Amino acid sequence: MLETYRGIPHLLDTWLVLTAMTLPVALSSARRPDGVVPRLASLLMPASFALILAATLSPTAHRLSDAGVCGTHLTTTGGLTSLQGLLNVFLFIPAAGMLTLASGRPADGIAAGIGLSAAVEAVQALIPPLGRSCQLHDLIANTLGAFAGVGLAAVVQLVIRTRIATSPAYVVEHGAILVSRGPARHRRTELVPRSTPSIRAVPRPLTAKATRLRPLTRLR
């Protein structure tokens, strides 16, 4: 899948072009009314996904003839313990992490990582002129990278929440709210207040011809 260390022609050029194409989306996402970290993650997220597409779908010098064939052996060249496998893991860490920080939902980063990896493997299997091989261990490595990126994003979110909860402004603000809020009191309403002798409740019998609400008290 990923053969960067053996050379992908124009990898940097392809990544820069794809990043430039997604720049308007990144700028519009960065203007969202959230914290600094979600806005920064929204700005960098398109570039991280563009890097995945540039590194996995750029044509190489290899020429494959079999279409729709994927390797299922984990012991083949480029397994999880090789350099290519480690690159496949690290490739998906930024994308999954940025998506998690931007959306605030870890499930989005995991689903996007697995879905994008499966889509890339399918394209590599269906288009042999790309010179890429579809392998099961690549999908596993990309999934591990997505989980690692989501885990790192969760650590960053935890640190941010801890700093906010322990900041003096947050403590003073919420302490003032707790002090200003008194115990809840429930008062029972009365039809005839005791302090107003001039108001007396006059019950009126309900009839079948009554079609609207009638007052229960009459002023004299």
Topology of helices and strands:
Layout: H1 11-21, H2 23-30, H3 36-57, E1 70-71, H4 83-103, H5 106-126, E2 134-135, H6 136-166, H7 168-180, E3 199-201, E4 217-219
Parallel strand pairs: 1-2
Antiparallel strand pairs: 3-4
The portion of residues forming beta strands comes to under 5%
Average pLDDT figure: 75
Largest sheet: 2 strands, parallel
Q: Residue share in helices?
A: 55-70%
The secondary-structure element order is: HHHEHHEHHEE
User: Which regions have little confidence, pLDDT < 50, spanning 5+ residues?
Assistant: none
Oligomerization category of the chains in this entry: single chain
Distance between the termini: 92 Å
Structural features, described:
There is one protein chain. The chain is 58% helix and 5% strand. It is built from seven helices and four strands; from the N terminus they run αααβααβααββ. The strands form two sheets. A two-stranded parallel sheet has the order 1-2. Helix 5 packs antiparallel against helix 6 (136-166). The model has no long low-confidence stretch (mean pLDDT 75).
Pick out its properties:
single chain, 220 residues, two-stranded parallel ribbon, two-stranded antiparallel sheet, 58% helix, globular
